[in-house]
Design a protein that fits this description.
2 copies of one chain form a homodimer. The first copy, chain A, is α/β, with parallel strands linked by helices and 291 residues long. Helix content of chain A is 48%, strand content 20%. In chain A, helix 10 links the parallel strand 7 and strand 8. Chains A, B: Belongs to the LysR transcriptional regulatory family. Chains A, B: One of its GO terms (molecular function) is DNA binding.
């Protein structure tokens, strides 16, 4: 049988970002933490952590974490039927897209997390990295726009987000006085989330425009809206994120007939136990209520 | 003299996240891009890019980018006095903290960016990584809470952000019916931005509490506020970000006498030229207006 104290030390060091803090969290000394990790590495004959440039698990460390998190989830099911075994709150690490986290996510899972005393470790990743972290066992679930299932995981559709190309009325008057002409699109600065964000390119392709365009890069959902509101550019913004600004007229669509629908899929470990099943039901419930 | 077409190909591949898109941006074929990078690597006798797990510059590639971006900035000064040399908009890569980007940043630099047709590549990094990217020449400036200057760069104070421990009134009634007792703090779930976020620990230390506490991790400024509003936890939120919620009473401070002040410093290349100087003046102006 695996010595779970060793795996717990590894998981805690990574969750808390350091040996001191992991020791505090487990109520043992920093040197006891180091000793447990050393024991683990000696047994495996290889390192489980790299210390620099940042603290992270090696591939074998990731596999251990994966296993440990699955065991913790399964233990939760057991302790819910055997209350005498009760333990402190469980943690669940989930990768998701920035725009879901900035908009509907918290409301969708709030009741569920409170009822189950569940703590979330959220990480923002685009779909390729999110699904890779899921394959590596670093996250227990991933919310993204790819329907491609991961081996050992299930994948359920969770509706879609609607994106519209928004800017201030002043911006529209300045850069698009004659509408979305080729010349205007070639000069009007856009706002793009990051180098892998294809929404802007897809929108422009829908408009029949395939040339290069000037753009800011802004990898923050809220910063993105703030930049649009400050008149720095136009950008593809989730409708639900800009409802107040659209109602107030501080943001308008530069092409009212055009929008993009980005589907969302919920990927989760098939054997994640009851907690994961109940969380999935909470997400499906929100999705049905919205649609 | 360096062949700047080669450096431009490198910078464009990294800015656009791929060879195809870089080709589109420069109006040349993907194979012409590859050829330029190959030429560069042959001259240097070493690679300038790594392709996996993600596209990024090698250390020597970073040094070339640093140099290229400085040359681009200096060129801008020249073309502003020699309009016949005019070129398309310049880009400036800047690292900053997530909370500034989610709150005051866009308003502070909007006029400046419009007047100068300047495009921004923003990256969110905490201070250690942001300053390291500055030392490596990957970013031209860094906004963070460290006053420690980087060699070759200047560092100016830009005021501070005030953080308060906020939660919903329901949350306070549920978890802190008798105030911030030791027992309550040991059980009330907090929200923490990420493993390196020390604000929560500093706040608790100010309250005389030094034990472990349950917490969610949520690396998104807007998601953080949404999680607090959904009643999932209390967290250290910038006062300027929660003004509407504080006025409406949907968020309240769990300890009205307590707050944390996080100073902000603007680090920028000493020889960044006039553009960088003018941008710095725009930021100082906003800071003076606010204080």
């Amino acid at each position: 049988m695996i010595d779970y104290k060793l795996l717990e030390a590894l998981a805690t060091v990574l969750e808390h970002g350091g040996f001191d803090r992991a020791g505090d969290a487990l109520g043992i000394s920093q040197s006891a933490i180091s000793q447990r990790l050393r024991t683990l590495e000696i047994r495996l004959g290889q390192p489980v952590l790299v210390r620099s440039p940042e603290l992270k698990a090696t591939p074998v460390g990731q596999r251990l974490l994966n296993h440990f998190q699955q065991v913790r989830l399964l233990e939760r099911d057991l302790t819910s039927t055997l209350p005498s075994l009760t333990e402190p709150s469980a943690r669940l690490r989930i990768a998701l897209n920035a725009d879901s986290l900035a908009t509907w996510w918290a409301d969708a899972i709030a009741d569920f997390c409170q009822e189950e005393s569940l703590l979330l470790d959220l990480v923002i990743e685009d779909q390729d990295v999110g699904l890779r972290r899921m394959r590596e066992g670093d996250v227990a679930a991933c919310l993204c726009s790819s329907p491609q299932p991961v081996a050992g995981a299930r994948c359920l559709p969770l509706g879609a987000m609607i994106y519209r190309p928004l800017a201030t009325p002043d911006y529209v008057a300045r850069y698009f006085p004659e509408g979305l002409t080729e010349t205007a699109l070639r000069h009007a600065p856009a706002i793009v989330f990051g180098p892998n964000d294809q929404l802007q390119h897809r929108f422009l392709a829908q408009c029949g425009f395939r040339n290069a365009f000037p753009h800011h890069l802004c990898p923050s959902s809220e910063g993105f809206v703030k930049m649009a509101l400050a008149g720095l550019g136009y950008g593809m913004i989730p409708e639900i994120q800009a409802r107040a600004e659209l109602d107030a007229g501080t943001l308008v669509s530069i092409a009212p007939d055009q929008y993009l629908e980005v589907p969302l899929y919920w990927h989760f470990w098939r054997y994640g136990g009851g907690t994961m099943e109940r969380m999935t039901r909470a997400l499906q419930h929100t999705h049905r209520r919205q649609s």
